[in-house]
Amino acid sequence: MHDAIVHPSGARMRWVELPGPDPVRVYVHGLGATSAPYYAEVAAHPLLPRRRSLLIDLLGFGISDRPREFAYTLEAHAEALAAALEKAGVAGAALIAHSMGGAVAIVLAARHPELVAHLVLVDADLDPRPPAPVPAGGGIAGGGIAGYGEEEFVEGGWKEVRDRVGPHRWSTMRLADLRGLHRTAVSLARGTDPTMRALLLSLRMPRAYLHREGDAPDDVGGLRAAGVRVLSVPEPGHTVMLDDPDAFARTLTALLP
Fold first, then answer.
1. What is the CA angle 253-255-257, rounded to 5?
2. Which of 49, 223, 240, 257 could form a disulfide linkage to 228, CB 3.0–4.6 angstroms apart?
């Protein structure tokens, strides 16, 4: 396990690292997830050329620290991730980022383009959306998390979310700091300014957006016109890296050096 101090409180981000030559690959998880369980099989897949790979957890999630003083906005996550990558000696990396992690990766690439040579987004959030009604299930931000007030969520709303998302997703979500999880969900629902979509369109490094078959992102034509490769993956689930790692690895092989 590796770590780096990324916040004035002394909070550390941690990651599992697979050895190999450059260019580096950095894998970033989604809301309530953690990178090693989600990406380990893909990162070590025999179809992919071996590369130095960092399976990193954002602050408040997985094995990283949970500072109360941290803002847990998409922008704050991006700056903390940039600090971790810089301290790990990473530049010109391929970023593979899922869902909420994709939104963080877009902000990172826009603010620190020297760190990112390739950007692969997997079912990433591109647009702000109003929080899903509570307790009306799935939608934005992991089972309607952003629809709760912070204290309401911390004091018991998380139990309703646990029951809605099910034991598989909760197995990693339960590792998250409850306030960090809620604040991140609220920031994700609010989006960035400019929006994640606008930032993505403005980037100049090779970019790809992977989506589940039959569930393409809005305005595919606009993404493609800006040079974003939009590709479908046959597996219908949101977590293709878990549900069909072979298909995901094959797709990455066509996109990454």
1. 75
2. 223
Per the prediction, the chain carries an average pLDDT of: 92
In this structure, the chain runs to a length of: 257
Residue type, 186: V
3-state SS, one letter per residue, for the chain: CEEEECCCCCCEEEEEEECCCCCCEEEECCCCCCHHHHHHHHHCCCCCCCCCEEEECCCCCCCCCCCCCCCCCHHHHHHHHHHHHHHCCCCCEEEEEECHHHHHHHHHHHHCHHHEEEEEEECCCCCCCCCCCCCCCCCHHHHHHHHCCHHHHHHHHHHHHHHHHHHHHHHHHCCCCHHHHHHHHHHHHHCCCCCHHHHHHHCCCCEEEEEECCCCCCCHHHHHHCCEEEEEECCCCCCHHHHCHHHHHHHHHHHCC
What mean pLDDT do residues 173-195 have?
Answer: 95
Burial category of 193 from C-beta neighbours within 10 Å (exposed 0-12, middle 13-18, buried 19 and up):
exposed
- pLDDT tens profile 150-166: 999 999 999 999 998 88
For the full predicted model, state whether its pTM sits above 0.90: yes
